[in-house]
Structures are given as structure tokens and as C-alpha cells.
């Protein structure tokens, strides 16, 4: 399991913000005043907060306990000027990578998962059914670095075709064979590159849109038109694995929520005491609202599921 750094956490949080910042529930955070930030934080206290979330609020607002009433009192006593570090982060004037309290508050405000940093640092979610990998920012960062190294390696070790032709001796049959073999190899590599590019261009014509309890494959143009017409959700990039495996599910007291200590269900709050549940994290956000999906926890089960069991 790869242990991630605070810089990874910051980068992943920023990517999440860029992805969801235009959703209605977050537009107030695009350029907030200190008073707006205070009111937003008070509003968070009405949400379904985990014990970790309450600790984040208590620590930032210097509260005495994690009781919601005490946290709200701490927020109301908080000097408006003390919200400036959050303003600076949201306004991209600083990355505040060393200010953990600010990072955790921003993660909470944008409903970023996994939070807090301690949970992110050790995150390694395995989806056994359907072989769907958790696409949190840790894998994205590692993959980008790996691809960059591979790309640099290819560039450093594959000279242009002209260089091969000019540098090969032609005095013997053996040398001619080597020259021809290398030229053929370069041509094949070139054809593979063109094929990959063509495949990428063709795949860009495919999208997915949410229908009922799952994603359905669609032509991007048609899906976008339907979205603008208000008859469907916004289209998202095509992903074969998500299309096949990601579904909204119903849960009850007999549902298997964990396997070998790993969550099998993800959820998001849709209203007071109401939640939608999914069989894996999918794109990482709710297909309709765009809110981050959270892995199921024992705390959530005890409060909202098992309390209704007879």
C-alpha cells in the first residue's frame, strides 16, 4: 500500500474542487466573503457529519467539544478575519500545504473523500466485484507520474527514422538485414501509434448518461442535446468498467456492507435522513447531484440502517 503525502492530498483536493466547483451547492465558494464562509460552515452542522468531520470543525474553530451545539457557538464567536486562510486557498493565492486545519476545512466544505488526511494517506480501496478500481486521486497521481516516466523513456530511446537510416552501415548483407529489421520495427511502432490515436479519437465520440439506476452508453452529441433539453442527466466520459459494474442499489438489514474489512457499498446524503446507495464508487460522485460518494461506515449503519431493524 502506497503512503501518500500532504502534497498529494492538496493536489487531489484541488482536482476535486475543479471538478465540482460549478455545481449549485458550491458556487458560493467561488468567491466567498468571510461572512458567507461563516454561514456556510454553520450550514454544514445541519448535514450528516461523521465523527472525523466534527473533529475538523472543532479543531478549526477552536471549540471545546464535538457536540454540534458547541461547534455552532464556536463558529459564531469566530473572528471573520480568521477565515482569510480559507479565502486565500479558494482564491488560489496560496496552496496552504502546511496548514492542515485549512486543508481539512476545505475538504469538508467541498465534501471531498477520503478525508481527513490520515484516512487519505492510508487509502487503498479494493473493489472485488467487477474488478472496479477506486479512482481516488492517489491512483491518478501515481499513474500520471508513471506515464510521464514511460513517455520520457520512449523519447530518449527511439530516435527518428532518418537517424537510423543515416547511421547504419551498408557494406555487408548482415548489416543490411539489421538495417531493414530496424526500419520495419520503427514503421510498426509508428502504425501502432497511429492506431492508438485513431482509437482514442473514436472513443471520444462515446459518452454515458445516467438512466434509472445505472449508466447507459450514448453518442456524445445526442446525450448532450438531451441534457440541454432537460430530459436526462449530463453526459460523462465513456468508461466500460463503470458502465458494466456501477449501479444504484437498495439496502436493508440483510445487505452485506463489508467483505474482509473492505466496504462494498458507497452512499451520499440526498435529504434529511435520506441517502442513495451504490455498489462501488464509480466516478467518485453522485451521477445526478455531483456530491462525493462516501464508503459505508459502521457509524452510518448504526444510525440509519440497523436502527430500523426489528
Short description:
Keywords: Membrane, Transmembrane, Transmembrane helix. This protein is an alpha+beta fold.
Keywords:
11% strand, 310 residues, alpha+beta, 48% helix, 3-stranded antiparallel β-sheet
List the uncertain runs: 124-171, 196-203
For the biggest β-sheet, the strand order reads 4-8-7-9
Question: How many whole angstroms does the radius of gyration measure?
Answer: 25 Å
SSE arrangement, N to C: HHHHHHHHHHEEHEHEEEEEEH
Q: List the quaternary state of the chains.
A: single chain
Mean pLDDT value: 76
Percent range of helical residues = 40-55%
Count of alpha/pi helices: 13
Number of strands: 9
Determine the strand fraction and express it as a percent band: 5-15%
Main sheet?
4 strands, antiparallel
Transmembrane segments: 181-202
Keywords: Membrane, Transmembrane, Transmembrane helix
Amino acid at each position: 500500500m502506497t503512503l501518500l503525502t500532504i502534497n498529494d492530498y492538496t493536489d487531489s483536493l484541488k482536482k476535486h474542487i475543479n471538478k465540482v466547483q460549478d455545481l449549485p451547492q458550491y458556487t458560493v465558494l467561488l468567491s466567498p466573503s468571510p461572512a458567507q464562509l461563516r454561514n456556510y460552515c454553520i450550514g454544514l452542522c445541519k448535514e450528516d457529519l461523521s465523527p472525523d468531520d466534527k473533529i475538523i470543525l472543532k479543531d478549526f474553530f477552536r471549540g471545546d467539544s464535538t457536540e454540534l451545539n458547541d461547534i455552532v457557538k464556536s463558529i459564531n464567536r469566530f473572528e471573520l478575519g480568521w477565515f482569510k486562510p480559507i479565502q486565500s486557498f479558494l482564491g488560489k493565492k496560496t496552496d496552504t500545504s502546511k496548514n492542515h486545519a485549512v486543508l481539512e476545512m476545505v475538504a469538508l466544505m467541498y465534501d471531498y473523500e477520503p478525508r481527513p488526511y490520515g484516512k487519505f494517506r492510508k487509502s487503498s480501496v479494493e473493489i472485488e466485484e467487477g474488478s472496479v478500481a477506486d479512482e481516488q486521486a492517489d491512483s491518478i497521481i501515481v499513474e500520471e507520474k508513471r506515464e510521464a516516466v514511460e513517455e520520457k523513456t520512449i523519447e530518449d530511446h527511439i530516435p527518428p527514422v532518418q537517424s537510423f537510416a543515416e547511421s547504419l552501415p551498408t557494406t555487408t548483407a548482415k548489416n543490411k538485414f539489421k538495417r531493414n529489421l530496424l526500419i520495419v520495427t520503427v514503421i510498426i511502432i509508428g502504425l501502432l501509434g497511429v492506431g492508438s490515436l485513431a482509437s482514442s479519437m473514436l472513443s471520444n465520440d462515446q459518452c454515458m448518461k445516467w438512466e434509472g439506476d445505472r449508466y447507459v452508453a450514448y453518442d456524445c452529441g445526442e446525450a448532450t442535446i438531451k441534457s440541454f433539453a432537460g430530459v436526462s442527466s449530463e453526459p460523462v466520459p465513456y468508461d466500460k468498467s463503470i458502465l458494466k459494474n456501477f449501479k444504484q442499489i437498495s439496502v436493508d438489514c440483510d445487505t452485506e456492507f463489508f467483505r474482509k474489512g473492505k466496504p462494498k457499498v458507497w452512499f451520499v446524503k440526498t435529504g434529511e435522513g435520506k441517502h442513495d446507495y451504490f455498489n462501488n464508487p464509480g466516478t467518485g460522485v453522485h451521477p445526478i447531484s455531483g456530491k462525493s460518494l462516501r464508503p459505508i461506515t459502521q457509524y452510518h449503519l448504526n444510525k440509519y440502517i440497523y436502527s430500523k431493524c426489528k
